[in-house]
Amino acid sequence: MLPEIKRVKMPKNVFPTLWQAVLFRNYGLIKPQNLAAVLSCSEEILHTEAERLGLLRTEYNPDWAQKGYITLIRNNWFLLPYKQLIKLLGIDEARLDFILQNDDFLSVKLGDFKPECAEVSYAPLTEEESAKTQLVADMVRPFLQNRGEQPFKFFRNPCADKTIKRADGTRIVHGYLSPCGDAFDTDTETHLPDGLLAEYAKQGVNGVWLHGVLSTLSPYPFDEAQSNGFEARRKEMKKLVARLKSYGIKLYLYMNEPRGLAENKFGKYSHLIGRRERGYASLCFEQKETREYLYNAVKDLLCAVPDLGGIITITMSENLTHCHYLPNTNCPVCKNIPPERTAASVNNTIQKAIKDSGSGAELIANLWGWSPYMEWTEEQTLRGVEMLDKDISVMCVSEYDLPIVKGGVESKIIDYSISNPGPSQITKNALKKAVETGHKPYAKIQINNSWECSAAPYLPVFDLTFEHLQNLAKIGVKDYMLTWTLGGYPSPAAKLVADFTASKGNMDLSAWYKGVFGENADGVHNAVKTICDAFREYPFSVQSLYLSPKTLGAANLWTLEAEEKRSVMVSYCYDDFESWIYPYPYEIYLSQYEKLLKGWGQGCDELQKLPSTPMIDEMKIFAKAAYLHFETDYLQTRFSFEKRDKEKHLQSLIQTAARAKDNAEALLALVRKCPLIGFETSNHYFYNERNLIEKSVNMSQILDELKKN
Which residue among 129, 145, 161 closes a domain? Predict the structure, then answer.
């Protein structure tokens, strides 16, 4: 069921016509015949008009369709109606619906609605439109004279070094390139190539987790079409398990089950309907048939793939699963049942299936959401842990509910923070209870990046990670889930965790720097400490993580007119700055960013003075990219505030817009130097070079408009 269509105020177009925006954003990224069909023109016209816009003749890159389709959807969501979007992508409505629902909440990231768009088609330009097009082309053309590295060119060369760094403990990452929907519907070598696996092994990673949607991996009686091809997926999974084994790595499936279903799909199983919401319903877990389905589906999968390393469950989340997946269920059967009982029951059912299959797979129960965030008391969390089968490992988000103070403002972490090392007291209590009741403890942390800045593969803040590891070692943790979907890059931070584990928590950090960076160790360490000190000033809040401009970075288009839309999760950011600065007052949010930018910029300068080595050069690029993303947040927050009184803030608006233009062009230069910048597997590319060029044009137009006042 595709998101509903709503009429909203559409963004101002940078180009003279709407069809030119479609052409500019998709030329070379979409098959020419598809793009021409969407615009109702010939391919010859397509190429002619692209050149008129300043685009050079560009060869079609099929990687975008396979590995960058989320970028394509996001770039066209406000341009094309469903019918044309589907034609552009070369898919059908069912496939688009699957992507929107299963690719890590993509529909939510897009606002959970589809803007009403008129059909777009080519029309010859008027004389006025031609003149405006020439002005745009004059701005675009200089950026395309020199092309850099191509996107998606990651880990393509086989790694000759087969070194496996062994150490006690488990260190699990998400595949850096792996999809977040149907990971086994394609050749897994395309997203987990041997070059990447070899790097993981060398850095001490010994587990890779991928999303596992059970209805695509085992027979699904409630809607049999969802199971089409499950045998082929299992075959692909077995192939991956064998390849991983040669690198000393195990495969873990991340499961959020049993998944809900559209009410109109239940048919003869309507008696299983539990919680209802927006045309969907959960499979009530108090019903015997639901529990039997989950047990049989997991057992059958484990019998077919007996060497699977494990299953990681999440039982409280944003996905409709059991009737208590969110607070306050409307299921008449479950309304009086404690949520901790249901969550524990789901885990215990899966554990029984694993045991009965004869597999050696480990079940790791992720307690995300077993918390006040989902309206649980700590007593409920501890009770839930006690209800778990003793063979189930227990994992907590380390920094959950950690109290912080930034700029005098008190708040708490939920998750996804590197700048504030955990663990929190509630995590300590839950893991203590887990150990007391016979469970193996795990900590979920982020080592490379987080939603604090997800567009750089890793942030050079190793001292903060070391501090976090030391804190966890004090409570006996030596097993980790090191990343969410973001953060799976084989970085020095992964090696840091493996080395720390091998040292039994007695690692000398200065000696570690010496072993990794050699004669440049002191210089690198001093720069990293400067960056870490700056990062502690980051004005952390969940609202800032998800709603602020830092994620799409300089690719956010600006407008001088007031926006009526609200910013949405890690995608579109408008001018509702109050949404993303909360709980910080405007002045404190900016002052914290000024401290962050000053210190981070100083750290970047210190890195630039160091000799060139592959690892140091990589750090220089990633640190600068992060700086530009932080600066974008600062600039757009300021611009959004000041444009509400243009007359009063005119000169400041001009200065801010000019900095934003420079920011976009600096980020473009980095993207061309290193195509890793801007990529995150659950969002694909947050931006590409075309988005950044469009932003530069956007800022030039805004500057012209401001200077007329």
Answer: 145
